[in-house]
Structure formats: structure tokens, C-alpha cells
Amino acid sequence: MSRYCYNNGRIDITPYNISLLHSAAQYMEMYSSVSGTQNLSEQTEKSLHEINEWTWSEILICIKQSQGLFSDANSLAVVKRCMDSLVGRMALSSESSSSLSTSSPDSSSIRFSCDTRSTESLRNGFSRATWWFEDLLVLSSEFVEMLIKSMVSQKLDHAMIVRFLVYYQKNKSNTGTSDEKQRIIEIVIEMLYILDWKSILCKSLFGILRVALKLNISKSCRNKLEKMIGSQLDKATLDNLLIPSPYGTTYLYDTNLVLRFLRALQHGGNCQVTLMRLKNVARLIDLYIAEVSPDPCLKPSKFLALAMSLPDSARDSYDEIYRAIDIYLEVHAGLSEEEKTKICCALNYEKLSAEACIHLAQNKKFSSRSAALALRFQQLKLKNLLQGANSTCHDGSPSEGSDQIVVYAGKLDLPDDSEKLKAHLQGMQCRVIELEKVCRKMQSQMTKIMKSRVGSHSNARSLPKLCS
After folding, report:
1. For 310-346, how does the pLDDT look when each residue is reduced to its tens digit (9 = 90+)?
2. pTM for this prediction
3. Among 7, 48, 231, 313, which residue's CB has the most CB atoms within a 10 Å radius?
4. Which CA distances in Å does 238 have to 202, 233, 294, 316, 423?
């Protein structure tokens, strides 16, 4: 500035000093002309209009100098123009990388850096859309935020933005203080949140989560990360979910975190939850429940919350939940009858297989009420089977197999007393096996009858299944 003042308002303005000069000119209110020449503010503005003539490395140098002036609002105008220019070049390179790769960096209409590192990057991998990732590692977290917002406004591919953010986070997590790492991870989460979540790999989100759990990030950022993970929970793996519990707790795995993922899946996010996705999540959660059920410190309320976290429609079978409850009750042998009954509320007895129902009824770890319910639902299944068989025989003359079903179903009237109920189990198991054989025979006979009557393959295919 002294040189400018004592040289009649003449000074060389370059990418190496423009951010400092612009901030100083604004701060000193140098808006008046000096010796008939343009004032310093006007000169810096004029130089900024020529930013498209700068090389890639010159823009980066200008941005790096501006980082030291980030608290100065006057420097933001310079930074914004630099960011917009960088993003414009990224967009152009991704669109015409094939043509640019055959020419020298400065021969195109937009000039790039001629320094050794950037030239080598352009020469060896310019056709790759990620050539600029390493160069931008010099940016602070605040400047990365500005860069991403500029990328979004210029409609760059969200998948590419995500890849850069993950790359930036991984490289920056190895250096810096705890506070710096915390700020970086928060900025990365905030920027990912404004992108299309479908562009983010589930694996990347869990990688960020594992880093975030070691840092004291804000509650708002944690909630946003959990929402993004919840929206892709159907793509997660069991290893992703097996996150150790927070320091100072006694239980093995962070079940509260998984419950929050499930709430985010069903009540938040920007992705529609289809029945197929829910079924995929149910299979994953069943594996998770089986993994955490042997934990002696897992409270019954948490176990029950996990087992009942998804709607009934998400499961076609409750056999896996039954097995998990069986393990849990074995580890927690001291539970009261009332607590056991509450845990068994997670079961849908109608969706238990015959084998599971019979096993449950004989299982001394379960309450007597659960055993009775399992058997009664199995009896109801068989009676419904009988009704279905009768309704299929339109001519009113049941076959020999149908008579057998009536006989066997008549033997299944179960006593109310729980002890007597269990005494009938062994005989019932044999009768169920015999019934299944009869049902298969009946189904084959009825299919032949319907084919001969209707002669339609579609009607035969729509016959009710008599055996599961």
C-alpha cells in the first residue's frame, strides 16, 4: 500500500497479492482517484474480472492467501470469484476430458496450472474426473463449505461431490487437533446432507460415523448423519451395525443408535420406504438381534424395542425372532414370568412355522401362556386348512384325504390346563407330520380335478396352498 501511495497510484496486481490488496483497499476506503489514475479498489476489481486468464495454480495461491483473511468480509468477494472459477473448470474438464487430455494444459480456452504436480496429474490421469481432489486438500473446512455450495449451485454431479468430500475427510482426519477434526467432520456431514442422499454410499456414511463417534460433534450434525444412514439402512451389513456401546456403559453394542437408525428409516429422510426395503431391513435386524441377544447386560426393554421396531408386514416369518428370544431367555434366566410374557409380545404366532410352535410349546424357558398361544395358533392354522379343503371340493363329496383331515383336526381340541396341554405335544407333533402328508396328497388330487373341470391353467395356479 505504501508502494502504491508513493508511486502515484501504480502497482502490479497479481494473483499473489490481489486478496491482500483488495481487503486493504476496502478497509482503508481507498475509493478516490490518485493523480488521475484509478483508485486501488477499482484496480483490484478490474483484475478480478480477468480471473479466467489465470492458471489453475494461480487461483489456488489466491485462495490460500485468502484463507488467512477469512474473518474479513471484504475478502469473501475474491474467494467467491475464485471458487466459481475453479468449479467452472471442474465442470468443463468433466465434460470434455477426452479432448483436453490430448492437448497441453494451457492450450485450451481455460488455462490450468503448469506446476510440476498439477501437470503430472493432468498428464497421467486428466481423463479421470477426480484429478483435482488432491489439489483442493489445501482448503480449510470453511472454504470447502463455500466450494461445495458453489458446486451445487453450478449443478455438478452429486456423486462426484460426495467422492470429494469423503476423500477430503479421510485425508484431513489423519492430521490436526481434535477441534479441527471435529470441525472438518461437521462440515462434511452438513454438506452431504444438502446433496442427493442416493449418491452417497452406505459404506462411506458408516466410515464417517465411526470417526464422528470419537469426536464431540454437535447434536444437529449427529442427527443429520443418523437420518442419512437410516435412509439407506437396507444397504447396510451386520458388521456396520455392530458398533460398540459408548464409553461408560455396560452393554456390548450401541442398540440405542440402531433404534435411532430405524426411526429415521420409517419417520424421516428423503427416500420412500417400500415394503421390499422394509423386508430387507427386517432380515438385517433379525441378524442383529440374534447377535446382541447373548449380551447379559442388554435390558429387556431394549431387546423388546429392537424386536418390535418394524411393522409386522416387514416379516413373513418370525422364526428368527423366536430363536433370538430363546437365546435371550437362556442368558437372562432370572427374568420374571411377567417379563418373559412381555418379551414374547414381539412374536406373531401366526407367522411361526409348525416346528417353531412345537419347539416353543415344549420350551421351559418360555411362559406357559406363550406355549398355550403357540399351540392354539397352530390349531387355528389346521382348522383354516380344513375349511380351505372343504371349500375346494365343490361337488360336496370329499375324498379320502379330506376325511383324514377331519379325523386329525378332531383330535386337536386342546385342553385349557397348561400341564395337560404340554402332555399332548408329542402326539400332536406326529399328527402334524401326518397331516402335511395328507395335505400334499389332497392338493395334488384337487389340482387334477380343477384342471379337468375348468381347463384353465390360471385357475389351477390360483388354488390355495394347503400346506406351508
Report:
1. 999 999 999 999 999 999 999 999 898 889 989 999 9
2. 0.75
3. 231
4. 13, 10, 16, 20, 40
- Which of 92-101, 152-161, 205-214, 337-346 comes out lowest in average pLDDT? 92-101
The 10s digit of each residue's pLDDT in 136-148 is 999 988 899 999 9
Could you give the C-alpha distances from 40 to 7, 198, 460, in angstroms and in order?
12, 48, 89
In sequence order, what are the residues at sequence separation of 6 or more whose Cβ sits closer than 8 angstroms to the Cβ of residue 430? none
CB atoms near residue 88 (< 10 Å) = 16
Cβ proximity of 377 and 416 under 8 Å: no
CA distance 301 to 342: 9
Residue 456 binned pLDDT confidence (cut-offs 50, 70, 90)? very low
Per residue in 216-229, pLDDT tens? Answer: 899 999 999 999 99
DSSP-derived secondary structure for 176-241: S-HHHHHHHHHHHHHHHHTS-GGGS-HHHHHHHHHHHTTTT--HHHHHHHHHHHHHTGGG--HHHH
60 conformational bin, left if phi > 0, alpha if psi -120 to 50, beta if neither: alpha
The whole-angstrom separation of Cα 218 and Cα 186 is: 8
In the DSSP assignment, the letter for residue 264 is: H
Of the candidates 191, 93, 108, the residue with the CA atom closest to the CA atom of residue 142: 191
CB neighbour list of residue 185: distance below 8 Å, 6 or more residues apart: 169, 173, 208, 211, 212, 215, 217, 221
CA separation for the pair 393, 400 (Å, rounded): 12
Residue 433: Cβ-neighbour burial (10 angstroms; 0-12, 13-18, 19+): exposed
Give me the numbers of helices (H) and strands (E) for the chain, helices first please. 24, 0
Task: Give every CB contact of residue 59 below 8 A, 6+ residues apart in sequence.
Answer: 15, 51, 82, 85, 86
If DSSP codes are grouped into helix, strand and coil, which group holds residue 253? strand
Q: What are phi and psi of 152, to 5 degrees?
A: -65, -45
